[in-house]
UniProtKB/TrEMBL annotation:
Alphabetical list of Pfam families matching this protein: Porphobil_deam, Porphobil_deamC
Pathway: Porphyrin-containing compound metabolism; protoporphyrin-IX biosynthesis; coproporphyrinogen-III from 5-aminolevulinate: step 2/4
Originating organism: Oryzias sinensis (Chinese medaka)
Top-level taxon of the source organism: Eukaryota
Protein's UniProt name: Porphobilinogen deaminase
Annotated PROSITE patterns: PORPHOBILINOGEN_DEAM
Lineage, broadest ranks: Eukaryota, Metazoa, Chordata, Craniata, Vertebrata
Domain (Porphobilinogen deaminase C-terminal): residue spans on this chain: 238-291
Cellular component per GO, a single term: cytosol
Length: 354
C-alpha cells in the first residue's frame, strides 16, 4: 500500500489487481509508482490473485486454447468492483476484450524483442554456434517457427512456467542448451546479465504488443479512465493498435505463429507482419507504412464505440489511431490474399493434434 493512504482519511482508495508472479508484481508496482507520483493524494492498494494460466503449468499454452488465460480472474474481480484497474502485459490481452472492459493506458514500450538465455555451460556461444541437435526451450509457436527456419540445426521443445521457473529448469538440468524469453521481462526482473543475445527482426520478430504494459479498466468508469490515460505513450499506442488490428484481422491468437515488427520514423509508422507454418518452412511476410502527421482533433468524450482493438486513448488524435488501425487491417488483408489463412489453418490443426 503506497503513499496517499497515510493520514488522509478522505482520499479515494484505488485498488489495483495483479497476478501473483514476481514479474507481474514488479510490473504492477512500477505502474502504481507512476500513478502515485502523478496523484500523490490517491490511496493505492495492490490486490494479488492467481490465474488459470498460473495454475496449469504442465500444458503448452497454445494447447490450452483459452485466450484469456492470464486475464480471466482479474477481469472477474474488475467486474465485481473488487479492483479498479488491472495491470497486464499487453501481449496477454486478446484483441477483442469482453464487453464492459477497455485498455485505458498503454505505457512506453520496453525492448519488445526476444532474448537468448544460454545454459551456463554454453557461455560465449550463439544460436548459430550451438552444436547440432541442441535443444532450445520455448513454448511459443511464433518463436519456434521463426527460429527453426533460421537455425535448422537446432531442436525446439516446450518449456512452461514463469520466468523464475524457466531459468531454474534451464540452469539446474541438462535438458536445454538455451531458452528464448522476452527481453522486457528479463530486464524488468533485473536479469539483463543473463541475456546472451537480443534477437533482431531478421532472426525473430516479436509478438503483438510484446514489451508493453497495459492497464485494463471498466469502460464506464470515466474517472479511472481519465486518471490512467496520462500513462499512455503515444508512439507505443499507435504501434500496438496497428499490431493488434493486424492480429485481429488474421484471427490469430496464442495458438498460431504470427509475428510483427513496428517502428516510427519521420512521421511514418512502419508495420512488418508475418505468418508461419509450425515448422517455419512456409512463411508470408510484408511491410506497409502510413503517415502519422495529424491535422486531427482530439475527441473529448469517452465513448465505448471509440475503442480501437480494445484500446481507449481519447488524448491521442483520432485520425492517427484510425490510420494505425487501418494499417494493421490492410497488411493482414494483403497477407490473406497471398494465402495466410491456409497457412494459419494448417498450423492450428497441427497444433491441436499434437
Amino acid at each position: 500500500v503506497s503513499g496517499g493512504c497515510r493520514g488522509n482519511p478522505v482520499s479515494r482508495v484505488i485498488r489495483i489487481g495483479t497476478r501473483k508472479s514476481q514479474l507481474a508484481r514488479i510490473q504492477t508496482d512500477s505502474v502504481a509508482a507512476k500513478l502515485q507520483e502523478l496523484y500523490p493524494d490517491v490511496c493505492l492498494e495492490i490486490v494479488a490473485m492467481s490465474t488459470i494460466g498460473d495454475k496449469i503449468l504442465d500444458t503448452a499454452l497454445s494447447k490450452i486454447g483459452e485466450k484469456s488465460l492470464f486475464t480471466k480472474e482479474l477481469e472477474n474481480a474488475l467486474e465485481r468492483n473488487e479492483v479498479d484497474l488491472v495491470v497486464h502485459s499487453l501481449k496477454d490481452l486478446p484483441t477483442s476484450l469482453p464487453a464492459g472492459f477497455t485498455i485505458g493506458a498503454v505505457l512506453r514500450r520496453e525492448n519488445p524483442h526476444d532474448a537468448v538465455v544460454l545454459h551456463p555451460k554454453n557461455a560465449g556461444k550463439t544460436l548459430a554456434s550451438l552444436p547440432k541437435n541442441s535443444v532450445v526451450g520455448t513454448s511459443s509457436l511464433r518463436r519456434a517457427a521463426q527460429l527453426k527456419r533460421r537455425f535448422p540445426h537446432l531442436e525446439f521443445k516446450d518449456i512452461r512456467g514463469n520466468l523464475n521457473t524457466r531459468l531454474k529448469k534451464l540452469d539446474d538440468k541438462e535438458d536445454f542448451a538455451a531458452i528464448i524469453l522476452a527481453a522486457a521481462g528479463l530486464k524488468r526482473m533485473g536479469w539483463e546479465d543473463r541475456i546472451s543475445a537480443v534477437l533482431q527482426p531478421e532472426d525473430c520478430m516479436y509478438a503483438v504488443g510484446q514489451g508493453a504494459l497495459a492497464v485494463e479498466v471498466r469502460a464506464k468508469d470515466t474517472d479511472i479512465l481519465e486518471m490512467v490515460s496520462v500513462l499512455h505513450d503515444p508512439d507505443t499506442v499507435l504501434r500496438c493498435i496497428a499490431e493488434r488490428a493486424f492480429l485481429k484481422r488474421l484471427e490469430g491468437g496464442c495458438s498460431v505463429p504470427v509475428a510483427v515488427h513496428t517502428y516510427i520514423k519521420d512521421s511514418q509508422l512502419y508495420l512488418t507482419g508475418a505468418v508461419y507454418s509450425l515448422d517455419g518452412s512456409e512463411s508470408l511476410k510484408e511491410t506497409m507504412q502510413t503517415s502519422i502527421c495529424s491535422g486531427g482533433s482530439v475527441s473529448e468524450e469517452v465513448d465505448e464505440r471509440l475503442q480501437r482493438v480494445g484500446v481507449t486513448a481519447t488524448k491521442i488524435p483520432a485520425d492517427l489511431q484510425d490510420g494505425a488501425e487501418r494499417l494493421g487491417v490492410d497488411l493482414a488483408d494483403l497477407l490473406l490474399t497471398k494465402g495466410a489463412k491456409e497457412i494459419l489453418t494448417v498450423a492450428r490443426q497441427l497444433n491441436d493434434a499434437r
